[in-house]
């Protein structure tokens, strides 16, 4: 059972074969033109529109253009007239060298639909080169004993033209000893031989100088000359002879320099100097031949790199000359063997850099491939990556089209880097890679999407106007203007909600701002929808829910419900002196308008006439006795209770309690010390001092008497809060009373304790509280305390 990839590959191969056969049948006609070389640029070659039966305007509408291997522009097409013109002068010898016929292949590319027409231009040779001898002078050493009719080979002249325009005949200047005979070589070229007509006599004429002329067959003919200098030497009756008249050798084109090609050998039956043979390249010099021969050993080696694509065959003539001047020659036929040393070449003819998304099959690029190697080394295969939605379709010969396999999605992938790999079939295989980038242009097919379906924002009450309370964010996977998002507030579901006066949104970045100061006690939460719209055409949009929660702030001071502080007469609590410890005296009741921990209230005793006599429960505000009452306790007690919430920073209020100690509930009610003092003397000593000072400015003595009286009254009445008591000189070091139950002394309950110096019984004479100064009305400053509140009392 075949796998899915194998079925897909077979399907693609069938499609490629069908398209290739169709295009071959419809576009396989070839057009051939002929033109002499060296024709002036701009000359008319032919009218393609007429030859192809096309209308003149059709070439322009179908985007006709000429393609030549290597993208070198040799021809130009006038699409308005259909004329094919020469772009520059064409030199047959430069373009084709010795190849005959010289044919230039080019293609006519048409679009809409894509059509490729093969055309050839044959360059005919003109006689624009004269024959040239490679040497200005030839030296022949001929023994005088040479018989008439002896033939002496001469070096040929080179003519870059071909056919009849190359060398056709050789002549020698008139003389009585020699004439020239012209012969044909196997490769079609003609070579001269000097024939002796009359025996030489060294004593009469030791040297001759003749002029050899080479004539080509052009009209008019061209010629070239060289000098043949003949030295007549003594008798040497045996010429060197090669073991083979022709040597055939094959050599790879990538052979290293100085490598051995072949070794030739000749022998001479003469002895001495006449029997020593020297080898030399008979035809060609160091410039034209890539070979060199050792004159002693006859080994032919490589002196210049070979190129199969430039020259495939070499015919090298080797001359062996003995010491007497006689020579023999042989031919070495060298065939250059091709190796895979040329990577394939890719020529891009058409390229589209951007393809709209959601488009059907689109032609992205048209290109051609070539390889100058031969055989399997010149066969090529073109491929692209398998994971791309593109296909390579062969069109005409070595032309391919790169097309999309399916509609593209820019949001899935915005661009493709396509590598076209062209690999030949040689060993080792060589390849060429060409990278192209295809971008997918955007279409507005995606609506903005919020990062969350709903947003919850917290705002602390009493915020400043225009406060940034949060942001919403939406993204659009499109690009450009299609991805630019604008935010807006949508009408709220509750028509009574004044949304426009509460919040605003930045349309560019989605930042939300509170326009007014919010009050938790008035509005605890509200919600609305936010819309996000892109700038595409048509525009797409989406929406998200925003819920705003107002967080409570500690902006309400605790309010004491009982006892009332604004009553005309203070409330006095009666406590029997026989009360046990823990006796409930009263309960302070307070409330806080805030919520949460801002409304959690705690109570503590801030001031007391008799420290340690009463305690306040931190959680419920109950005031209870802490110990048994004694006769020494003052009958009138004044307590200041601090009520504090748990906010940050904490807010507090204080309440003053008046407690009257009675022997029984039948004892008549005694007015509070503050009421008694209000009828006679104000409770605050400073106020007394100020009133007395204003009334008795003229009498300092009277002022001192009043102070003395006030101190005495303080000692007798036990009203420590009405003035400061004198303290004995000695203090208990570090003996401080803790009534907070925290285990450590807090600032509110640290006292200095003094003893009378006379009795020595250790009784307290006066207690002097060390207290911070608190305002009795308004907000009490924060008092540092431990967060753990115990419900029990600890007294010393």
UniProtKB/TrEMBL annotation:
InterPro entries: Cadherin-like_dom, Cadherin-like_sf, Cadherin_C, Cadherin_CS, Cadherin_N, Protocadherin/Cadherin-CA
Pfam families (UniProt xref): Cadherin, Cadherin_2, Cadherin_C_2
PROSITE patterns referenced in this protein's UniProt entry, alphabetically: CADHERIN_1, CADHERIN_2
The entry's keywords: Calcium, Cell adhesion, Glycoprotein, Membrane, Repeat, Signal, Transmembrane, Transmembrane helix
Cellular localisation: Membrane
PANTHER family: CADHERIN-87A, PROTOCADHERIN BETA-5
Transmembrane segments: 688-711
Highest taxon, organism lineage: Eukaryota
Mode of membrane association: Single-pass membrane protein
CDD domains, per the entry: Cadherin_repeat (cd11304)
Record SUPFAM superfamilies: Cadherin-like
Protein name, UniProt field: Protocadherin beta-5-like
Signal peptide (from-to): 1-28
SMART domains, per the entry: CA
Record-annotated Cadherin domain positions: 27-133, 134-242, 243-346, 347-450, 451-560, 575-675
């Amino acid at each position: 059972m075949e796998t899915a990839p194998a079925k897909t590959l077979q399907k693609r191969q069938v499609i490629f074969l069908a398209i290739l056969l169709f295009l071959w049948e419809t576009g396989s006609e070839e057009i051939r033109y002929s033109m002499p070389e060296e024709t002036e640029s701009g000359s008319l070659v032919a009218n393609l529109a007429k030859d192809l039966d096309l209308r003149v305007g059709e070439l322009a509408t179908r985007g006709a253009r000429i393609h030549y291997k290597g993208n070198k522009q040799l021809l130009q097409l006038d699409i308005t007239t259909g004329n094919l013109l020469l772009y520059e002068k064409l030199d047959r010898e430069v373009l084709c060298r010795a190849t005959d016929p010289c044919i230039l292949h080019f293609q006519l590319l048409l679009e809409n639909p894509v059509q490729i027409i093969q055309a050839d231009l044959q360059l005919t040779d003109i006689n624009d080169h004269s024959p040239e001898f490679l040497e200005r002078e030839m030296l022949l050493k001929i023994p005088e004993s040479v018989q008439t009719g002896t033939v002496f080979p001469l070096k040929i002249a080179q003519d870059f033209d071909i056919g009849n325009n190359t060398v056709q005949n050789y002549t020698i200047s008139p003389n009585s000893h020699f004439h020239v005979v012209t012969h044909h070589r196997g490769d079609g070229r003609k070579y001269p031989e000097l024939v002796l007509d009359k025996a030489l006599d060294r004593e009469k004429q030791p040297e001759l100088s003749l002029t050899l002329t080479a004539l080509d067959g052009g009209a008019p003919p061209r010629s070239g000359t060289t000098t043949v200098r003949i030295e007549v030497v003594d008798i040497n009756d045996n010429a060197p002879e090669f073991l083979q008249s022709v040597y055939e050798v094959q050599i790879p084109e990538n052979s290293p320099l100085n490598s051995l090609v072949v070794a030739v050998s000749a022998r001479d039956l003469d002895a001495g100097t006449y029997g020593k043979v020297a080898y030399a390249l008979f035809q060609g010099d160091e410039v034209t031949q890539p070979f060199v021969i050792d004159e002693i050993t006859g080994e032919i080696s490589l002196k210049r790199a070979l190129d199969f694509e430039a020259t495939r065959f070499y015919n090298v003539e080797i001359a062996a000359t003995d010491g007497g001047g006689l020579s023999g020659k042989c031919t070495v036929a060298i065939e250059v063997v091709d190796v895979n040393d040329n990577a394939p070449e890719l020529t891009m003819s058409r390229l589209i850099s951007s393809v709209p998304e959601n488009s059907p099959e689109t032609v992205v690029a048209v290109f051609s491939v070539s390889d100058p190697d031969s055989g399997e080394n010149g066969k090529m295969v073109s491929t692209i990556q398998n994971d791309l939605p593109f296909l390579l379709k062969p069109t005409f010969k070595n032309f391919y089209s790169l097309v999309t396999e399916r509609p593209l999605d820019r949001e899935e992938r915005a661009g493709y880097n396509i590598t076209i790999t062209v690999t030949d079939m040689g060993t080792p295989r060589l390849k060429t890679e060409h990278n192209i980038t295809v971008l997918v242009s955007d279409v507005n097919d995606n609506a903005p999407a919020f990062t969350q379906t709903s947003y919850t924002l917290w705002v602390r009450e009493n915020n400043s106007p225009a406060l940034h309370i949060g942001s919403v964010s939406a993204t659009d996977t499109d690009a450009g203007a299609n991805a630019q998002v604008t935010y807006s507030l949508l009408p709220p579901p509750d028509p009574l909600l004044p949304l426009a006066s509460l919040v605003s949104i930045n349309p560019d970045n989605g930042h939300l701002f509170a326009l007014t100061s919010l009050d938790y006690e008035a509005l605890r939460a509200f919600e609305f929808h936010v819309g996000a719209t892109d700038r595409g055409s048509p525009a797409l949009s989406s929406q998200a829910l925003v819920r705003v929660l107002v967080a409570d702030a500690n902006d309400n001071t605790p309010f004491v419900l009982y006892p009332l502080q604004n009553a005309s007469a203070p409330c006095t609590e009666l406590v029997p002196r026989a009360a046990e410890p823990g006796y409930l005296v009263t309960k302070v009741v307070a409330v806080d308008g805030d919520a949460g921990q801002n409304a959690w209230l705690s109570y503590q005793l801030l001031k007391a006439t008799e420290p340690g006599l009463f305690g306040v429960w931190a959680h419920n505000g109950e005031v209870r006795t802490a110990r048994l009452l004694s006769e020494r306790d003052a009958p009138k007690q004044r307590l200041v209770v601090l009520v504090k919430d748990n906010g940050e920073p904490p807010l507090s209020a204080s309440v003053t309690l008046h407690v009257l100690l009675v022997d029984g509930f039948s004892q008549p009610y005694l007015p509070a010390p503050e009421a008694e003092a209000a009828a006679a003397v104000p409770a605050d000593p400073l106020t007394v001092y100020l009133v007395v000072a204003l009334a008795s400015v003229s009498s300092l003595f009277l002022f001192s008497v009043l102070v003395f009286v006030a101190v005495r009254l303080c000692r007798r009445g036990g009203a420590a809060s009405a003035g400061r008591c004198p303290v004995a000189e000695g203090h208990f070091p570090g003996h401080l009373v803790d009534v907070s139950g925290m285990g450590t002394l807090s600032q509110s309950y640290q006292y200095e304790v003094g003893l009378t110096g006379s009795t020595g019984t250790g009784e307290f004479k006066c207690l002097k509280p060390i207290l911070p100064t608190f305002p009795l009305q308004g907000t009490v400053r924060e008092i540092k305390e431990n967060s753990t509140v115990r419900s029990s009392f600890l007294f010393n």
